[in-house]
Design brief:
By secondary structure, the protein is mostly helical. It contains nine helices and three strands; from the N terminus they run αβααβαααααβα.
């Protein structure tokens, strides 16, 4: 990603959404991600959103659930038998979540109190990689509102 950004600098805004699982388990991937973050920190028009373990971890917390909130239950709640079935049919995913009673505010409330690897100021907290799950996507709506107000 960094190579592509440096090769062809974007004139407009760029939003990157990535999983943190590879950076957590591979030191060379972590170093590459840190370089990307340093580059992004210099720009006002590039934004990075990271979720650990993967994007489904952000999505499943759109639901408040007193039972064990795991990916299997998330897939079943949306009517899918497993992750393969889910990933093959994610058209209009946000509407699917809303129709089953989920909402972004639930995920924002859940994740805003968990230490994240990269915050909205592109400050890195390596210790946060010890968290089992995290996401800084709760900054996303704030970013969209900021751009919408321009």
């Amino acid at each position: 990603m960094l190579y592509k950004i440096e090769k062809a600098p974007y004139i407009d805004k760029l939003i990157i959404v990535m999983d943190l699982d590879r950076a957590k388990s591979d030191i060379s991937e972590l170093k590459i991600l840190e370089k990307l973050i340093k580059h992004i920190k210099k720009s006002k028009d590039i934004h990075l959103f990271l979720t650990l373990d993967d994007f489904e971890d952000w999505l499943r917390f759109h639901f408040v659930d007193n039972s064990k909130n795991n990916k299997t239950n998330f897939y079943k709640k949306l009517g899918y038998s497993d992750s393969k079935n889910f990933k093959s049919s994610t058209n209009d995913l946000y509407s699917q979540i809303l129709n089953k009673g989920g909402c972004i505010e639930n995920a924002e409330k859940y994740f805003c109190n968990i230490a994240v690897f990269c915050n909205d100021q592109c400050e890195i907290d390596k210790n946060s990689l010890n968290n089992l799950t995290q996401s800084n996507l709760y900054y996303f709506r704030k970013l969209l509102e900021q751009y919408n107000g321009i």
